[in-house]
Amino acid sequence: MSFDSGRLSHAYITDDSFADRIAMAVVCNARDTARPCMMCVHCGKASRHIHPDITVVGRLDDKLIISVDQIRELKKDVYIVPNEATQKAYIVYDADSMNANAQNAFLQILEEPPAHAVFILCTGNPAALLPTVRSRCVELKPRFGTDLADRAIADSVAGSVTASDAESVEEHNEFEELLSYFITALEGDNVKLAECMFRLDKLNRPALFEFLALAREMIVISLRGLAKEESFTKRKAFIHAESILVKAGEMLDLNVSAGNIAGFICASLMK
């Protein structure tokens, strides 16, 4: 998913799978290219979930709703200028769990948002949101799989897609296949893992950056989808893999070569 550098909306409704990417685009400091650029320091921090200008709101502990008090706390922060980036992103998970009072409080923010704030409401049921809230947001609806969904989203937001050789349909499909192959390999297939690392060695820096960010997103989504009765070993493997990818991202920030990073990942994850 990419966004025209000057065409981000102030609020979106989407599902969990796109939230991190939108937030990364918000804090990205690219101005003449599509965002996120996957190369700047802001993208790096966002991919590791440590950017001070990205705030996550969700249900607390075992609560069934997002309360009006949580939205009031968010409102206090919204009007404070960004720490490092030029904009701030607010991700609200399970946005449909906001009760009526919370949604009305959120509506007040959407009616007069500060220029530096972008809100990302994550829900699989947009109809559960107040019509007045929905009317003030851009709804991003993934369609036809990851690649075409990304293009549809970029079209709906920016009106155009920034094209490059690396964004060809064939390369997109290969990249998506590599991600799926990697997630499957985490279940203990050392042969598949070695094949993945061989292919990672051939990626350029932006592509490797994107792989690490998307692989972490896929791991987090996979962990959320695991049933409680599923193997503790599988959960442990996914959590360990996510931590290794964080370290790999830090290595990339230090300009370590793709070959060394691929080798590090492979050695750390092989059983």
Q: TL;DR of this structure?
A:
The chain has 271 residues and is of the alpha/beta class.
Walkthrough of the structure:
Helix 1 (16-27) runs antiparallel to helix 2 (41-47), helix 7 (169-185) runs antiparallel to helix 8 (190-200) and helix 9 packs antiparallel against helix 10. The chain folds into 2 domains: 11-158, Rossmann fold; 165-269, Up-down Bundle (Four Helix Bundle (Hemerythrin (Met), subunit A)), CATH 1.20.120. The chain has helices at 16-27, 41-47, 68-78, 100-111, 131-134, 146-158, 169-185, 190-200, 205-225, 232-253, 258-269; strands at 11-14, 54-57, 88-92, 117-122, 138-139. It contains 11 helices and 5 strands, in the order βααβαβαβαβαααααα.
CATH topology of the largest domain: Rossmann fold
Please tell me the overall pLDDT. Answer: 79
CATH architecture identity of the largest domain: 3-Layer(aba) Sandwich
CATH superfamily of the largest domain: P-loop containing nucleotide triphosphate hydrolases
β-strand amount = 5-15%
